[in-house]
Amino acid sequence: MNKLVANATEAIAGIDNNMTLMVGGFGLCGIPENCIAALADSDISGLTCISNNAGVDDFGLGLLLQKKQIRKMVSSYVGENDEFERQMLSGELEVDLIPQGSLAARCYAGGAGIPAFFTPAGYGTEVAEGKEVREFNGKPHILESALHADFALVKAHRGDRFGNLVYNGPAQNFNHVMAMAGTITIAEVEEIVEPGELDPNFIHTPGIFVQRIFQGVNYEKRIEQLTVRKREG
Question: How many structural domains is the chain composed of?
Answer without folding.
Answer: 1
